[in-house]
Structures are given as structure tokens and as C-alpha cells.
Amino acid sequence: MNKLDLKPIVSILLVVLCISCSTDSLKIKSGDIIFRGNAHSDLSQAINEVTQTSKSTNYSHIGICEVSNGDVFVYHSDLGKGVIREPLEAFITAKDSIGYTVDLYRIKTLEDKQIETALVKAKSLLGNSYNSTYILEDEGYYCSEYIYELFKADSIFKLEPMTFKNAETHQFHSGWITHYENLGIEIPEGKPGCNPNGMANNDNLMFIRKIK
């Protein structure tokens, strides 16, 4: 009786296993960080133009994912809405972000307990207003401030001096001049803060895939 050659079978099983593992790693998981490209609003354009780096895309918005009963939700703080939880599809198809990229990132060294704690805090902050001054001490949360706050105890993200100046002209971006004139306060140049482009470049994050 001839012995069965198991080598082809083993090879096929290994390929299937590798494909399965690869596909699983690309799935959205609770705790994943999602970035959205700059929208059609003047403020979104202003955020992007003063925060872009050589490594970043054109992110001007950020949220955190939660997978619940097979559905994906995004917690984020949005201008005009405040801190909300909405389906992934709503986050992707926001009317002012149509045509822009949506990318998924994952925090490399985060344990399940840390993710659970972050999402519990995300839920506890629902309903807070949007912090339109971008000054940390002020009421509410702007989008990246909200994500920073969720992982503050884990020291995942760092605060840096904010700038509202055009990198080429070194003058205040016109969008920010208008924004702060409307608020009736000085531009908080140099105050500590964070932004989506800077957070995407954090060494603790790894790019998973493009969603849109």
C-alpha cells in the first residue's frame, strides 16, 4: 500500500491558515483608531494645512471604534454635534467628508483591559460639547483631545505646542484668524494640544488598512 504524500496537503493548510490570520488582522476591532481626511469646511482645511507632516496624509478628524454584536460604532467629538457614538457608515459618509480617505490604525501594545477602560470612559463622556477654542482647559473636547483623554492614563499620546501658522509663510492661517475673531479670543499659539496628523504619526500606532 502506497504511503500518502502529506506535503501538498500540509502546504495547502498552511496557506489557508496564513490567509485566515491575515484577514483577521485587517478586521476592525474595539479600540482601533480611525482617521478621516479633511472635509470641505474652512476649519477642517485650516486644521490640515497647519498640522500636516512629511509622514501624514491629510487627516483632520479622529475617533475610536467599538465592535458590538458584529456592528461597528465610532465614538468621536464632532463640530456641531459634540461627543457622540454613531455607526461606522455614518462616520464614513459624513456629508462634509465625501471623497476623502478613511484609514484604520491600531495601538500596538494595548491590552484588552486597557481597551475596555478606554471605551468605558468614551461612553461616560458622551454628550459633552465640542471644544471650539482648542484650549485644553476649556469646556468640552475637540476630536483629538477626546482620544487623548481616553488613553491619558496609558501615556499613549503626547501633548505638543500647538501652531496655527502656515508652515510655508509662518503667518497665521486665514481660517484660524477668522475662527478666533468669531470667538473673540486670541489665537492660542504655543499652548499644549494635539491633532489628528500628529497622532497618526505616533510610534504606538500601526497602520492597518484603508477603509475608504
Report on the structure:
By secondary structure, the chain is an alpha+beta fold. It has a single domain, classed as endopeptidase fold (from Nostoc punctiforme), CATH 3.90.1720.10. It has seven helices and eight strands; from the N terminus they run αβαβββαβααβαβαβ. A six-stranded antiparallel sheet has the order 4-3-2-1-5-8. Helix 2 crosses helix 6. About 7% of the residues have low confidence. This is Permuted papain-like amidase YaeF/Yiix C92 family enzyme. Pfam families: Peptidase_C92.
CATH top level label: Alpha Beta
Low-confidence stretches: 9-22
What is the typical, i.e. mean, pLDDT?
84
Number of strands: 8
**Order of strands across the widest beta sheet?**
4-3-2-1-5-8
> Outline, from the CA principal axes?
globular
CATH superfamily membership: endopeptidase domain like (from Nostoc punctiforme)
CATH topology: endopeptidase fold (from Nostoc punctiforme)
State which percent range the strand residues make up: 15-25%
In DSSP terms (H or I, runs of 4 or more residues), the helix count works out at 7
What structural class results from the helix and strand content?
alpha+beta
Cα-based radius of gyration, to the nearest Å: 20 Å
Helix content: 25-40%
Oligomer: single chain
Summarize the biggest pleated sheet. Answer: 6 strands, antiparallel
Question: Secondary-structure element sequence?
Answer: HEHEEEHEHHEHEHE
Count structural domains.
Answer: 1
Distance between the termini: 56 Å
- The CATH architecture can be named as Alpha-Beta Complex
